[in-house]
Amino acid sequence: MPDSKSKAKSSGFTAAEQAAMKERARELKAEAKTGKLKADGEAELLAKVAEMPAAEQQMARRLHAIVTATAPSLLPKTWYGMPAYARDGKVLVFFQGASKFGSRYSTLGFNDTAMLDDGPMWATAYALAELTPEVEKKITALIRKAMRATGSSLQ
Q: Which among 33, 66, 90, 148 is least surrounded, fewest beta carbons within 10 Å?
């Protein structure tokens, strides 16, 4: 029977996961204090983007431009230290740089609030290796679909 020390080490959160949870706790405290204005959330999001490696920064800045142009009513914010965009306080779409958790690729994710339902199975996260014009069109279409599904105006 394995001892409890070795089990705790292997089943615990990684340092990156712990840091993300601490960031989320800090975000929640800040939101409760300030009511989180759009400008505050955007400034925090851009500050987090500036901390990313150069390639991820470029991708995150381009995604920010796409999201804010496609759905300006979404509130930019950070979520577990990642760039995210919320509607009615709930994160709809987020970007996770590959370096965040040592992944092979960056990810564009949609929470269940995006309602991208398509039959009995659908994607909620997309690997991003490069932002080509074709990929940008797909991202724009997904954001529009999510906004329509949630009854949000694109403006």
A: 33
**Residue carrying the six token digits 């279409």:** 141
Give the end-to-end CA distance of the chain in Å, rounded to a whole number: 59
Would you say the pTM of this structure is higher than 0.70? Answer: yes
Strand arrangement, sheet containing 82-87? 75-79, 82-87, 90-96, 106-110, 125-128
Maximum CA extent, the chain:
59
Position 31 scores a pLDDT of 64
Under a CB-based contact definition with an 8 Å cutoff, are residues 41 and 82 in contact? no
Q: Are 105 and 98 in contact (CB under 8 A)?
A: yes
Own/partner long-range contacts of 50-58 (Cβ < 8 Å, ≥24 apart): 52/97, 52/99, 53/97, 53/99, 56/97, 56/98, 56/99, 56/106
pLDDT single digits (tens) 29-81: 666 555 555 568 899 999 999 999 999 999 999 999 999 999 999 999 999 99
